[in-house]
Specification:
- The structure holds 2 protein chains of 2 kinds.
- Chain A contains 8 helices and 9 strands.
- By secondary structure, chain A is α/β, with parallel strands linked by helices.
- Chain A has 2 domains: 169 residues, 3-Layer(aba) Sandwich (Rossmann fold), CATH 3.40.50.300; 78 residues, no CATH class.
- In chain A, the strands form 2 sheets. A 6-stranded mixed β-sheet of chain A has the order 5-6-7-3-8-9, with helices on both faces.
- In chain A, a hairpin with a 2-residue loop joins strand 1 and strand 2.
- The two termini of chain A are 35 Å apart.
- In chain A, 44% of the residues are buried.
- In chain B, helix 3 packs across helix 11, helix 4 packs parallel to helix 7 and helix 9 packs parallel to helix 10.
- Chain B has 12 helices and no strands.
- Chain B has a single domain, classed as Orthogonal Bundle (MetI-like fold).
- The radius of gyration of chain B is 22 Å and the shape is globular.
- The two termini of chain B are 28 Å apart.
- Chain B is 86% helix and 0% strand.
- Chain B is an all-alpha fold.
- The chains are: A alpha/beta, B mainly alpha.
Chain lengths: 249, 272
Amino acid sequence: MSLLELNRIGHAFFGRTVLEGITLGVARQEIVALVGPSGSGKSTLAHIAAGLVEPREGRIARRYLRHAMVFQEPRLMPWATAAGNIGFPLRLSRAPRRMRRRMIADAALRAGLLPEDLGKYPSELSGGMRQRAAIARALVTDPDFIYFDEPFTALDVALKRRMQDLVIEAAASARFAALFITHDLLEAIRISHRILVLDAGGRGIAGERLPAGSPGTRDEAAIFALRQHYLTADPLFAHIHDIDERLRP
Amino acid sequence: MSLFSACLDRLARLGRFLWSAWAGLAGLALIGALWQAGHEAYGDFILTAPLDTLAAAARLLREGRAQELLALTTARALAGFGLCALIGTLAGVAAGYSPATLRLSRPVLTLLLGVPPIAWIVLAMIWFGPSDLTVAVTILISATPVVFVGAVEGVVTRDRGLDDMARVFGAGPLRRFRFVSARQISAQLFPALILALGSAFKVAIMAELLANAGGIGGALARARAMLDIAEALAWVSLAVAALIAVEYILIRPVRAELERWREAAAPWGVKR
C-alpha cells in the first residue's frame, strides 16, 4: 500500500499539455527521486501531488498523515526570525506554545542550524543557512511525507552534498517518505531508493532504476560510476540533459 | 529573559531614533536660516522673522483659544483619516484579490483623483453646510484613493511563493491572509497611510477655511483678513507641528514594530 499514489495525472497550462498519463507510487519510508530534463514538468507534478495545483485529469491518493515541502527557493517569511519561520507549521497546526520552542530547537539542530542563528532574520542568514531553515521548517512537524522540489539547485557543490547528507540522515532517523524532484543524476543516486525518469515530453514515466544498496550506504566511487553508466550506456537517460525550457511555458 | 531582551531591543531602537533627531534638527535649522534670509531681504510685512513667528505661536498657545482650535482641526482630520484608512484598506484589499473589481474601480479612481479637492469642498458645503461632516467627507474623497492604491499594490505585489508555502503547511485562505499576506500588504500600505494623513490635515484646513467652519482654517482666514502675516505663519507652524506629532505618535511606532526585520537587514552604520 503506497503512501502516495498518482493515477493517470494530466495537466495543461493555457491549452498546452505539459503532463499526461503520469502514474506513480511512493511506499512508506521510501525516497523516490524523480528526474527529467529541464522543463519536463517535474515541479508541476510535485505541486500537483502536494495539492498546490489542481490537475486537469487523474486521481491522487494521499494516505500519509501530514506532509511538508522544501521548495527550490527557501521561501522564508522575511519579517519573521529563523525560529519564527521554522515554527510556522507548528503555529498552523496549533501545537501547544510550551512545546514549540523545544520542537523548533530540535528541528533546527537536525538541519544543522545553531541555537544562536534562531533569532536572526532571513536577510541576516547566508543562502545555505536559509535553505537549512527551510529544511528545519519541513522537519519540525515530524511529517511522514516530504516533497522536495529541486531544493539544492541554487547551492554550490560542497554545500549541496552537505545538504544531501542531511536529508539522508533525517530520512533515516525520522523515517519519512519523500518525493525528491531533481535534474541532478548524482543527487538522485545518492539520496533515493528508486529513481523515476519522467518522459522528456511529460508523457508518462519513461522508466525506473533501482540503484543497489540504500541511501547513505553507497560509496562515492560507485555512485559516480553508476552515474557515468546511466549517462553513457543507459538509453533511459539519453534525454536527461536536453534543455528545451523555451519550448514550454 | 526573552521579554527582557525584547524590551531592551525596543529601548535601543528608541534611543537610536531619538539620536537621529539631531539630523532632523539640522534640517529644520537649515529651513530656519533660509527663512531668516528671506525675512532680511523682504522685510517684516512679507515674511516675519522665524523667531517672531515662534513667539506668536507661543502666544497663541498661551492664550488658550489655539489649543481648542488645534484640537478641533486635529479631531476632524483624524476622523476623516480614520474613515479613509478603513474604507480605503478594505476596498483596496478586496479589489486586489478580485481582478474584476479592480478593473471596474480603476476608471472610478482616475475620475476621483481627477476632480480637484476644492470642487469637493464646494459640493460638500452645499450638501452638509459648514460642519464637521463637510470636512470629513472632503478628506474621505480626496485621501481614500491613495490608501486604496496602496492596499491594491500590497495585494498584487505580494510574494505568491509564500502563499503556496503556507498552503502546503495546511493554512486555509483566512490564515494565509492573516499570517502571510497581511504583513506584505502593510509594507505597501504604511507609506500610503502616512501620505493620506498628511493630506487629511491639509484638506481639513483648506475645507475649514473655505467653508468657514472654524478650526485652524477659520483662524487662518481671520489672519488673512487682518493681513497679520505673523499670526498666519504661526498657525501654519502649529498645524505642521500637530501633523508631525500625530504621525510620530500614531503611525510610526506601529510601522517600526512591523518592520523590525528591515532594520535587521540594514548593514551596520547605515541604520536610518
